[in-house]
Each structure stands twice: as C-alpha cells, then as structure tokens.
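Quick start: read one record
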Amino acid sequence: MKQAGSDMPSSDELSARQVSEFLLENPDFFSRHPDLVADLELPHESGKAVSLIERQISVLRERNMEMRQRLNSMLESAQANDKLFEKTKRLVLSLLDASTLDGLVSALYESLATDFKVEFHNLILLGEREKIPASLARVVGMAEANSAIGSLMRNNHPICGVLRADELQFLFGDDARHIGSVAAVPLSHGNMFGILAVGNRDQGFYRSSMGTLFLSYIADVLNRAVPRLMK
C-alpha cells in the first residue's frame, strides 16, 4: 500500500480493501484530519432503536453543517459589502472632485448606470432653468414639483415602493411606462433643492420595508456638493 503523498489511484479506483489497508498502515490518519470525522457515518448496533451516541453525532453533524452555511453566508455578505464600499467610495470621490454641475451629474449618472447597474435614474433640480448651469439633470420650478409630487417632497427621508402614474411621469419622463417600483430621496441644504430618483422594472424591487442607508448616504453627499455648483 502506498503512503499518503505518493501516487495513489483515483477515488473511483480505490477499493474498500485498499482503504482498509491504508487506515491500518496510518492509524493516526483521523487524528491528523479531524475535520473528516464530522462527515463520517458510524452507526451503532442497537437494533431498530437509535443509540444515544449515534443521535448525538447526528445532531453535531447537523449543527456543523448549519454553522458552515452561516459562515459561508457571512463571507458572501462581507465580500458584497466590500464591493459596495469600493463602488461608493469611487462615486463619492468623483462627486467631490467635480468642479462643475455638469461634471458632477455626469459622474453620478455614470456610476449609477455602470457600477451599480441602476437602469433608471434621474436627478431633478428645483429652481429657474436660466439661473442653473446646464447639465444632464432636469430643472423644474418649485410650483410644478409641488403640483406633481407634493406628497413626496414633504418627506425628509427616502421613500420606496410603487408610485402613481403621474408621479412616475414627472420623475422619469418617457421611461415611466417601464418602471414598476421607485426609491426617491429629497435633497436639501437649508431648503429643498432637488430629488434623486432610481427605478426598477420589478414592482417588488424597491419596497417600503427595505433599507435605504445607501441612498441616504449618497443624498448626504449631494446635499453638500450640488448647491455650490448650482450658482
């Protein structure tokens, strides 16, 4: 029988006899590989009844599998959070580096579309069009905004869910017919100056119960970066 580390047959070629011979020649194998013990099935002869030891081993194996699943889930969440942090950092730096309103809005739209894969997004600025520098953002008067989305503007925090057809039309224009659900956040710096809205085709994608920490964070940055460039 060949020792561990030498050229051994593949798992498909191993026979029960070869495994037995290997374990006899390597009695400390499971001491050196304790992680394998949890996955072994070692029934105890007790007739139709299940022995206490066998039941304990079964419970421990189930707990071990559950802990592995939890650990894998935690690792996946950590990796996703790392990626989100990197995307958010790039966006924030781009917004802070912008020297013009057009540059800031372009950076925002590029990040939302490319990094965050947000298909529908729109920044609406409130004020007089001739007094606000040109950019990809839509500029509307305060009275028009109040008439169309007055209930949304009265919130000082993000909202998520399904909106009325006229509200969607105001926020997204021609894309309104494609949008099932929306997340929107008012922008203010002393006074309200705009609204950032993102949409998805799925009606259940943005829900009233979902967290809005990321959107609030981006809004906080816009609240400080946009007003200085609107003059």
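The radius of gyration is 30 Å.
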